[in-house]
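Hey team,

Sharing the ArfGAP with dual PH domains 1 run so nobody has to redo it. Sequence (384 residues) first:
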Amino acid sequence: FPFASNRMYCIKNLRRKWKEFEKMLRPAEEGHSTLGGDPDWASYTLGVFICLSCSGIHRNIPQVSKVKSVRLDAWEEAQVEFMASHGNDAARATFESKVPSFYYRPTFSDCQVLREQWVRAKYERREFVHLEKQEPYSAGYREGFLWKRGRDNGQFLSRKFVLTEREGALKYFNRSDAKEPKAIMKIEHLNATFQPAKIGHPHGLQVTYLKDNSTRNIFVYHEDGKEIVDWFNALRAARFHYLQVAFPGASDADLVPKLSRNYLKEGYMEKTGPKQTEGFRKRWFTMDDRRLMYFKDPLDAFARGEVFIGSKESGYKVLDGLPPSTQGYHWPHGITIVTPDRKFLFTCETESDQREWVAAFQKVVDRPMLPQEYAVEAHFKHKP
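Structure output:
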C-alpha cells in the first residue's frame, strides 16, 4: 500500500507539472503530436515530456535518455522532482540554444530519419550547444558518396556529390575520378524532400532542379541516417545563403519557408490530351507549388508534361466533374482545371482522392501570384 500511494502521489505531481507546462509547449519537443492533451511518456534523465513516437527514438539512446510511461511506470520522488525542476522549455533553452536558422525542425508528421536525427543531434551529439559540430552542414562545402538511382535502368549506384556554395551548385560525378560532372544543379532552382515510401528506402531523398525550365528529378539515399540528414541541411544552408544575397532586405523568417518544400499532393490520376478526344491514361502526378507534373512512373527522371497553375485573378479555376461530352475515362471522379489557354481534364479512382486533389488545386488557385511567378507563367511550356 505505501508503494501504491507513493506512486499515485508521484503521478499526480507529474500530471500537475504537465498541466503547467502544457500551455507553453509548441507542437514541438521532437515533433509533439499531443498538444492540448497529456503526453504519456517522459525522459526522466533529460526532464522532458515526449509523445509515444518519440519515446521509441529516446529508447535508442539509453546512454543519454531513459524513458518511463507517465501512466504505467513507477516513479521515484526524486525523478518527479527532477521533472518538476526541468521541463520542455528548459530543455529547449539548453539543447536548442544554437540551432541555425536554416536547420530543419521536424514535426510529428515528418519521416522517421528526420525525427530521429533531430533527437540525436540535440541530445546525443549536442550539435546545437557546440557550434563546431555543425560544420558538416554549415561549412558551405560538402562532398561525399550517395547511392543514386539510374535514370534508365533504375539501379542505385554510388556516385560522388559535391556541394559548393561558392559556385552556387550541387554536382554529381559518374566516376570518382571524373573531371567533369554529369550534372550541375544550381542552388537557385534546387529543392530536396524526403520520400522514403516512393524511393523504397527509409533514407530516400528526392532532389529536383530546373533544366531548360523543366523539372529534373534525382533520387538518392545513404545508409547512414546522419549522413543523409546532414546533406539535406547542407542543401538548405546553401539555399539560405543564396537567398540572403538575392533578397538582402528579407528576414530569416521570410527566407526559411523557401529553403525546401514538400509537395502539396502526389498520387495517381487519369488524364487525357489537349484535344480531349483520346482515351484517358493513368499517370503519377506531383503538385509542386504551382507546377503540376505528370509521370508514367513515380521515379521517372523527367516529367511527361508540366502544367502551370496560376491564381483565380489570372483566370484559373478548379471545377468538380468533367464536361458532359467527355468520353474515354475509366475512373469516375472527375476534375477540370480551367486555365487561360485550355481546360485540363483528370479523373480520380475514389471520391476521397478527388476531394484531396481539388483542395490542393484550390489552395494554389486562391493564393495571389508573386511577381516572379508571372515570369514563370510567361515562359512556361505546356507539354502535350
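The CA atoms of residues 167 and 255 lie 20 Å apart.

Ping me if you want the raw files.
A.
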